[in-house]
Design a protein that fits this description.
- This protein has a domain of 34 residues.
- The chain has 22 helices and no strands.
- The longest helix is centred in the C-terminal third of the chain and has 19 residues.
- It is mostly helical.
């Protein structure tokens, strides 16, 4: 049974813990069916309690015409505190579709975005590259990359790749300069994205070596590129970095998203070779996302530990894993109880007036796998990143 076949029955689960786990497993997975995104959007509209986390986990998925119409019809009636998640999804529509629905979308997308769309749709190579440079300069001058221009830089990069306006030799030149510095430039990060779109396998060792860098945007693009290859060559190059404290979180996530037997076995070996509890948690989370019974010994053993603070919602991981693979465990309901208690406490905290406006931001971006700066102890993507 394939990974998608295993989780399909649980995609719209009424059990919030199960559905969140499934969505988390799909979030960075590169082959999610578009019809699943449509189903999930409909579910988010039907069930307001699920709305925030469903919309958040769809931010990497393609928004096709059916999905766009669901958003257009429902964004006006959404709670203001949840609407931003839906608006973020508008970045995932293709430019021809954006122009087709320009009349409905222009109230949500600023003029500067339409100017970029215009160049992507109708510009020649010189126009696109000129706009690409302008956008990168705006990102570089911004105190934070958390702005509208980062997804637009990716759209311009995607256009450059689709039109065949970038060569492997040109990317080689960029990387040869970028690796000399401690920090990748905006152009360097976009070239990682473009190399991933082109699936240029020769860069796999280089990208794996970048997992030790301390730059959340670079790490996310490197991880996404490596996952997009979805090959055992990636597994072999990334495996050593699962055993390093400064790279285990992203490295484990990559192997968790490559659904191969080799990836599963490398995670199992890494777990037994790692003594640090925090590092083991990231590996257990990745193992759990394979939904393979081969991971039962490691997950069962790990749940024998007792600790109060965890970057990973470990009880939710264990409860969801055992439920989805159809295995029984004497502590299953206790894990569910603890996980639900944490979920309810988190939702209670997030409803406080002081947290109802803008999520926590740092001047430098917080990686989705990093600890949340609000101090909750959760990963950012499971806390203020929602």
């Amino acid at each position: 049974m394939t990974f998608l076949e295993k989780i399909k029955p649980h995609l719209l689960s009424d059990d919030i813990l199960i559905q969140q786990t499934v969505l988390h497993a799909l979030h960075e997975y590169p082959n999610v069916p578009e019809e699943w995104t449509v189903q999930l959007l409909k579910e988010a509209i039907r069930n307001e309690e699920k709305q925030s986390y469903i919309l958040m986990y769809l931010d990497n998925q393609t928004i096709n015409e059916e999905a766009l119409n669901i958003l257009i019809d429902n964004i006006p009636t959404m709670n203001l505190n949840k609407r931003h998640h839906a608006l973020n999804l508008l970045n995932n529509i293709d430019t021809p579709l954006a122009f087709k629905y320009k009349e409905q979308l222009k109230k949500y997308l600023p003029k500067k975005i339409w100017a970029i769309y215009e160049v992507i749709e109708h510009g020649i190579e010189e126009d696109v590259y000129s706009m690409y440079g302008e956008v990168l300069n705006k990102i570089d001058r911004s105190p934070s990359r958390e702005n509208d221009f980062y997804p637009m830089a990716k759209k311009l990069s995607e256009c450059i790749v689709k039109k065949g306006w970038v060569t492997e030799e040109e990317i080689d030149i960029v990387f040869s300069e970028e690796v000399k510095d401690d920090w990748f430039s905006e152009n360097g990060i976009m070239n990682v994205y473009m190399a991933g779109l082109l699936k240029l396998e020769k860069y796999i060792p280089l990208f794996a070596s970048l997992l030790t860098r301390d730059d959340a945007f670079l790490l996310e693009e490197v991880s996404a590129a490596l996952i997009r290859f979805h090959s055992d060559q990636v597994v072999k190059e990334v495996a050593p970095y699962v055993r390093k404290p400064d790279s285990v979180i992203f490295a484990a996530s990559i192997l968790g998203n490559i659904k191969s037997e080799l990836a599963l076995q490398e995670l199992k070996k890494a777990y037994h070779e790692t003594e640090d509890l925090d590092e083991q948690e990231s590996i257990i989370e990745a193992l759990g996302s394979h939904f393979s019974k081969e991971a039962l010994p490691e997950i069962n053993a790990h749940m024998e530990y007792e600790y109060a603070v965890s970057l990973v919602d470990i009880e939710q991981v264990a409860y969801s894993f055992y439920t989805i693979v159809g295995e029984k465990h004497p502590d299953l309901q206790e894990w569910k109880k603890v996980a639900m208690s944490k979920e309810m406490q988190f939702n209670k905290e997030m409803k406080k007036p002081e947290l109802q406006t803008v999520p926590v931001r740092n001047e430098n971006k917080v990686g989705r796998n990093d600890p949340c700066p609000c101090g909750s102890g959760k990963k950012y993507k499971k806390c203020c990143g929602k």
